[in-house]
Write a structure and sequence with these properties.
The protein folds into 2 domains: 1-58, no CATH class; 61-134, no CATH class. It is built from 4 helices and 5 strands; from the N terminus they run H-E-E-E-H-E-H-E-H. The chain has helices spanning 3-9, 63-73, 93-96, 110-123, and strands at 31-34, 42-49, 52-56, 78-79, 100-101. A 3-stranded antiparallel sheet has the order 1-2-3, with no helix packed on it. Strands 4-5 form a two-stranded antiparallel sheet. Strand 1 and strand 2 (42-49) form a beta hairpin. The longest helix has 14 residues, at 110-123.
Length: 134
């Protein structure tokens, strides 16, 4: 059962003021069950109240989804742009910068759209509030 009906059945009402709905932390280790549109139910566990931090207990991505992300992004990976600081002049780049990045657009990729929707369901942030490129 999704969290909303379960809370109503338990006579629990959550009130919040302004902004978008967020899962309340309640207390450390409190858990919420979230049923996204795709995939099995997920459990959010409160790790910190200030700042509010949740852990997704189960694997958020399936092995197939993770492989799809890797396959789509690997050909585009490039070293991150960076400004060289005076203290780094003369050093090899590997001594001061080692990250590689690529922004993976959703476009019309069914796997990425499914993941975007799952993020929407678990964060309660609408897709229009997420960075998108389709």
């Amino acid at each position: 059962m999704p969290a909303g009906p379960a809370l109503l059945a338990a006579n629990i009402v959550l009130l919040y003021e302004g902004g978008a709905f967020m899962w309340p932390g309640v207390k450390l280790n409190h858990t919420w069950s979230v049923t996204p549109r795709s995939g099995p139910p997920l459990t959010l566990r409160t790790l910190s109240l200030v700042p509010l931090v949740f852990e997704v207990v189960e694997d958020f991505l399936t092995p197939r989804e993770a492989a799809s992300i890797i396959d789509a992004s690997l050909p585009h990976m490039a070293q991150s742009g960076v400004s060289l600081m005076d203290k780094d002049k003369g050093k090899k780049a590997t001594e001061w910068r080692t990250s590689w990045t690529y922004f993976l657009p959703t476009k019309a990729d069914k796997t990425m759209i499914t993941i975007d929707e799952r993020v929407e369901d678990i964060t309660r942030a609408p897709l229009t509030h997420q960075v998108r490129t389709r």
